[in-house]
């Protein structure tokens, strides 16, 4: 006799339409709550770092270049300085130029929503459970997201979630083609925030684990409690090298890795 869980599934293995509508409504309510809270706290416009981020974006747009010295200091204007979040600063400047202070607030709210959705999306892909993914997103938002100022690090949160999802799903299912998206992710990430190095560490860690697993296979030691990766070492090595090269593409070249 089929279980109650199976009885609520249609022949394709997906939940009935009424449950999909319930999931969609839950996700919309979650994001609406996060967006309203972010707008209420006004963290985007009260951030003490807002001024120099905005001024840097204005300077980049005005000069069609990225500064490499501390332009906005009195004592170190000729010292090297890497504008490692220049992509974020251009977006911030454009939002302010088009909509004023309201544009900055809306930009911050959209960033907050993007982080919340990225956490949900990662958890949903890795767990396969909608309610678990929502619960993780709720805890993340309550624990730290709404308390943070809307800075370039939000892009790092988004892209780290994307990186982890691609790595873990590719490793688990042996879907190497998912990993081919990673160089594009790092091309964006390296021009938005310097914490792309954390993502490179995650890719390098998976590569190291895969190499170790292959050594264990050569030694014919494969314990049943250890789940081996289905990703081959050579494609992963190529992806890792491509990710490293992608971080060097941009107006700063390799200055971000030397910061």
Poorly predicted spans: 1-8, 254-259
Number of strands: 0
Q: For the CA atoms, what is the radius of gyration?
A: 22 Å
> What fraction, in percent, of the residue positions are helical?
55-70%
**Structural class determined from secondary elements:** mainly alpha
Number of domains: 2
Query: Beta-strand level of the residues, as a percent range?
Result: under 5%
For the sheet with most strands, the description reads: none
Order of helices and strands: HHHHHHHHHHHH
Continuous helix count: 12
Shape type: flat
- Distance from N terminus to C terminus (CA atoms, Å) equals 63 Å
Mean pLDDT: 85
Structural features, described:
It is built from 12 helices and no strands. It has helices at 4-7, 17-41, 43-46, 50-63, 86-127, 130-143, 153-173, 176-179, 182-190, 196-218, 233-246, 255-258. The protein is flat and about 65 Å long. The longest helix is centred in the middle third of the chain and has 42 residues, at 86-127. The chain is mostly helical and 259 residues long. The chain has 2 domains: 24-149, no CATH class; 152-259, no CATH class.
How would you briefly describe this protein structure?
The protein is an all-alpha fold and 259 residues long.
What tags apply to this protein structure?
2 domains; 259 residues; 69% helix; mainly alpha
């Amino acid at each position: 006799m089929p279980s109650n869980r199976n009885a609520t599934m249609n022949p394709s293995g997906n939940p009935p339409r009424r449950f999909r509508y319930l999931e969609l409504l839950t996700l919309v309510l979650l994001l609406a709550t996060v967006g309203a809270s972010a707008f209420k706290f006004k963290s985007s416009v009260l951030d003490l770092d807002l001024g120099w981020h905005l001024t840097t974006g204005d300077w980049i747009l005005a000069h069609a270049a990225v500064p490499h010295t501390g332009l906005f200091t009195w004592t170190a204007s000729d010292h090297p300085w890497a504008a490692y979040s220049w992509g974020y600063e251009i977006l911030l400047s454009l939002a302010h130029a088009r909509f004023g202070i309201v544009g900055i607030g809306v930009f911050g709210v959209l960033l907050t929503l993007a982080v919340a959705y990225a956490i949900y999306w990662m958890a949903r892909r890795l767990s396969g459970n909608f309610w678990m993914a929502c619960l993780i997103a709720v805890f993340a938002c309550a624990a730290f997201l709404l308390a943070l100022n809307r800075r370039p690090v939000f892009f790092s949160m988004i892209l780290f979630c994307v990186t982890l999802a691609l790595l873990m799903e590719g490793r688990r299912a042996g879907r190497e083609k998912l990993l081919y998206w990673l160089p594009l992710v790092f091309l964006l990430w390296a021009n938005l925030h310097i914490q792309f190095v954390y993502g490179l560490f995650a890719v390098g860690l998976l590569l190291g684990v895969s190499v170790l697993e292959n050594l264990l296979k050569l030694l014919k030691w494969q314990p049943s409690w250890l789940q081996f990766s289905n990703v081959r070492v050579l494609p992963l090595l190529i992806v890792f090298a491509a990710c490293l090269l992608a971080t060097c593409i941009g107006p700063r070249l390799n200055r971000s890795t030397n910061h």
